[in-house]
């Protein structure tokens, strides 16, 4: 856990301590319900000083109407992500970042087909194998935000060009992933607005096809092994505010 993580945790407090079983759960802190049905649609327990493991039998998967789940910045004691997220058929946003998770990411985490945002970042002991990553790129066609920084996806090997199968992607964070190989010469998604590949092991030249990213505002390639001249295409990307090759 980094110094930054400890700084975040210093501001955390146990939201569940305010929960009272004698009252309607829709009034509990961190819980949002659909007004018409009373069904729980959002659960925000981020930075709530939750400790222990995420149980494979967690009752969370019974919340079939859940659209947003945020368990970030907790301490799950290097436990693994349990299977069962495929049962959350309405889920659009899942955030498990910075919660001290480990092991392999279960393949069924990519089965909620409505998922728009997936954040597993800053879980240093978490691994994404090639099979699970392939399922992610095949199933999550609506995904717009993918944050996997500090997750080990070295099993994927070279640049995971499969992510360009996700045509709605706008925000991609793949720094500190132990990725290798060369940057692809083509297929860069024109919808991308933020793309960070810093602190990996990419080598070779910078492809001129990056000029296709007409909506990009941030491009990060720092701390790689890239070489050669920087192509002059970046001056034509009007929305680009940050370009980092340091």
Automatic annotation (TrEMBL):
InterPro entries: Leu-rich_rpt, LRR_dom_sf, LRR_N_plant-typ, RLP23-like. The keyword Transmembrane applies. GO terms for cellular component: membrane. Residues 16-33 form the Leucine-rich repeat-containing N-terminal plant-type domain. It is a single-pass type I membrane protein. Transmembrane segments: none annotated. It is found in: Membrane. Signal peptide: none annotated. The keyword S-adenosyl-L-methionine does not apply. Keywords: Glycoprotein, Leucine-rich repeat, Membrane, Receptor, Repeat, Signal, Transmembrane, Transmembrane helix. Pfam families: LRR_1, LRRNT_2. This is Leucine-rich repeat-containing N-terminal plant-type domain-containing protein. It comes from Gossypium gossypioides (Mexican cotton).
């Amino acid at each position: 856990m980094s110094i930054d993580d400890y700084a975040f945790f210093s501001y955390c407090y146990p939201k569940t301590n305010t929960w009272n079983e004698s009252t309607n759960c829709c009034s509990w802190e961190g819980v949002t319900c659909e007004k018409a049905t009373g069904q729980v649609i959002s659960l925000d327990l981020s930075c709530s000083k939750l400790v222990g493991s995420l149980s494979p039998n967690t009752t969370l998967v019974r919340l079939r109407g859940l659209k947003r789940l945020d368990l970030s910045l907790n301490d799950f004691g290097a436990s693994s992500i349990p299977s069962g997220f495929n049962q959350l058929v309405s889920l659009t946003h899942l955030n498990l970042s910075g919660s001290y998770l480990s092991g392999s990411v279960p393949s069924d985490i990519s089965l909620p087909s409505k998922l728009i945002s997936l954040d597993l970042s800053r879980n240093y002991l978490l691994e994404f194998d090639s099979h699970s990553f392939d399922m992610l790129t095949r199933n999550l066609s609506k995904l717009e935000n993918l944050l996997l920084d500090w997750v080990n996806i070295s099993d994927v090997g070279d640049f995971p060009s499969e992510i360009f199968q996700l045509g709605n992607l706008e925000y991609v964070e793949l720094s500190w992933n132990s990725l290798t190989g060369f940057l692809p010469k083509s297929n860069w998604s024109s919808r991308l607005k933020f793309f960070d590949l810093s602190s990996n092991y990419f080598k070779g030249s910078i492809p001129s096809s990056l000029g296709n990213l007409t909506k990009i505002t941030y491009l990060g390639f720092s701390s790689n092994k890239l070489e050669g001249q920087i192509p002059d295409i970046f001056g034509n990307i009007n929305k680009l505010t940050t370009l980092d090759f340091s």
